[in-house]
Design a protein that fits this description.
elongated, Rossmann fold, 29% helix, 289 residues, Alpha-Beta Plaits, alpha/beta, 8-stranded mixed sheet
């Protein structure tokens, strides 16, 4: 099927109403896009901020009468922001999507391999993982930083806790690298389902829990790839989940936030220097005796 896009240059105040109106007049999909290279890293809980210059992009069947669409929108919303119409190239979108994901190596022996690829190094530690609904495919710097740490770690016989497990990528890596027991914790039930499905695909066992249902256990290693704000708030819980000499790996932290988070954790952990990838940081340390 051929498609066209109506692309509006909107303000954040207009964007939500415009999106709702476009959906109501038959748009197959509506997306928001940053139109001014303005990153939004860590919104407050309950907030969904938009960029100061937001493109609202609506996808329609190519046979759509665009003039009629704009007349309807004007009747509902009044004056519309500037708009342009673009034809969408006809492609095999599933193949296009798959072609964007390739096997990736982290460190010396750890690979993430989409299911439609053969492992480049069959003898390496290969995690079979497809992009899905839960966060974490290894392509983001925060995940990459954690995987690089795991690649160099000796996890033999250890208990590992992945707090905020998302897709389960870090938990599965720990299991494949020799951990004796691996626990994934997440507030999102969908993430726990994704972790279980990905663990089964990789023939490893990961116990999964919502935070309130997690048993009382202390890990030899606690991984948390979340965001700086929650990491600061969760330190008391992390103390319950670790013991003296437990290792800690934190990511999801911007370079500008690293000093604050590191100082916060230094009261209970001997913290290493921050490791930076692009503008993101990994912090690691060992709990005091």
């Amino acid at each position: 099927m051929a498609w066209i896009q109506l692309i509006f240059t909107s303000s954040p105040q207009q964007a939500e109403a415009l999106s709702d109106a476009l959906s109501a007049v038959g748009a197959a999909a509506v997306t928001f896009q940053d139109n001014a290279d303005q990153p939004i890293y860590e919104p407050a809980i309950g907030e969904t901020p938009l960029w100061s210059a937001t493109s609202v992009i609506a996808l329609f069947d190519a046979e759509t009468d665009c003039d009629a669409v704009r007349e309807t929108l004007t009747a509902q919303l009044g004056d519309l922001p500037s708009c342009r119409i673009e034809a969408v190239e006809d492609k095999d979108w599933e193949r296009e999507w798959m072609d964007n994901f390739h096997p990736i190596c982290f460190g010396e022996k750890l690979w993430i391999v989409p299911s439609w690829h053969q492992p480049p190094q069959p003898e390496a530690v290969n995690i079979l993982l497809d992009p899905g609904l839960a966060f974490g495919t290894g392509t983001h710097p925060t995940t990459a930083l954690c995987l690089q740490w795991l690649d160099q770690a000796d996890l033999t016989g250890k208990t590992v806790i992945d707090y905020g497990c998302g897709s389960g990528i870090l938990a599965i890596a720990a299991a494949l690298l020799g951990a004796d027991k691996v626990i994934g914790i997440d507030t999102d039930p969908q993430a726990l389902e994704a972790t279980q499905a990905n663990a089964a695909r990789n023939n490893v066992i990961v116990e999964t829990y919502l935070p309130q249902h997690c048993p009382e256990i202390q890990g030899d290693l606690l991984l948390a790839n979340i965001l700086a704000g929650p990491l600061m708030e969760l330190m008391p819980r992390f103390l319950q989940l670790t013991h003296p000499h437990s290792e800690l790996v934190l990511s999801g932290i911007l370079e500008t936030q690293a000093a604050t988070v590191r100082q916060h954790y230094q009261t209970e952990f001997v913290m290493d220097e921050a490791i930076v990838l692009e503008e993101w940081v990994r912090l690691s340390g060992v709990r005091h005796e």
